[in-house]
């Protein structure tokens, strides 16, 4: 049931302070700073850590969740990490080896492209790992091991709480995989501390951004096209924000790595196109500030997502949405919340079918 909410999507957006907690329950011990994931036994951890590489293969929002955790897998593991869009992977039929670990991430566990890619990797003899939300789904049955998201049933076609729980569960996985490194202990503890505050941060974020986002939706209602910029940890955020906005509003929205701006996309900037830029605090903040200046210099009207007061960003931006600050590698999970809400508010204002956008299905079981 939708309870007091007008749509499942809104309910699922608001549920996230709870669902991220449910994804950690029984898995992360905040006191002893240890992670236990049912699927990641000692033997399975060894298999992954002694593999040739890790290949993440999925579609849509699930692929964006993989992209969101990629920098942390790069940082904490001594392995090459690759990301594959399942349909493109199938088109290319690339090399996969027996000592590869192929990770399939899927809310439904039934997405046809992801399943076909799994079968391809199975034939190559690779180790198959699954992160799905659906117990008994094809992907959870066909993989050698893995973990469930435990975020509860997601009804809205546009994925919200599954995205944030995918980030949480894959974060737990990388913490478990790196737990014998003493060198990495301070960083791992920093991430675990942030995970222990995550539910409260999500709740605070929902409170902080709601009125701002409603007002912004009114202003963006007539936009013909929207750009979303980010880089580093926020590259995944800009892709996922753009996916949410386009599927809910039917308005062309593009997520662009701001490092690519001057290689083409700058030509799109004028006074009419709304440009949302992630400027939350991390090692790339100076580059985010420079992106906002580049947009301003072309008469653009940037909308900045910030996590602490920032004079330069505030002076350059037309609009500011402030969110709580968490550890850099989890900030994407917080940053997506105002974007899910913006997509929702715009869809309602436009009279679109929020829980079932046109031409889309919850589980894409055809190729
Ligand atoms: C977007 C969305 C889709 C799915 C994609 C993969 O909001 O829901 O992009 O993420 O179809 O679905 P799963 O995760 O079930 O494999």
TrEMBL record:
Catalytic activity: D-fructose 6-phosphate + L-glutamine = D-glucosamine 6-phosphate + L-glutamate
Gene Ontology molecular function: any one: carbohydrate derivative binding
Highest taxon, organism lineage: Eukaryota
Transmembrane spans: none
All copies of domain SIS, residue ranges: 44-183, 216-357
Source organism (scientific name): Bodo saltans (Flagellated protozoan)
EC number, UniProt record: 2.6.1.16
Lineage: Eukaryota, Discoba, Euglenozoa, Kinetoplastea, Metakinetoplastina
Keywords: Aminotransferase, Coiled coil, Glutamine amidotransferase, Repeat, Transferase
Protein name as catalogued: glutamine--fructose-6-phosphate transaminase (isomerizing)
Single Gene Ontology BP annotation: UDP-N-acetylglucosamine metabolic process
Pathway(s) served: Nucleotide-sugar biosynthesis; UDP-N-acetyl-alpha-D-glucosamine biosynthesis; alpha-D-glucosamine 6-phosphate from D-fructose 6-phosphate: step 1/1
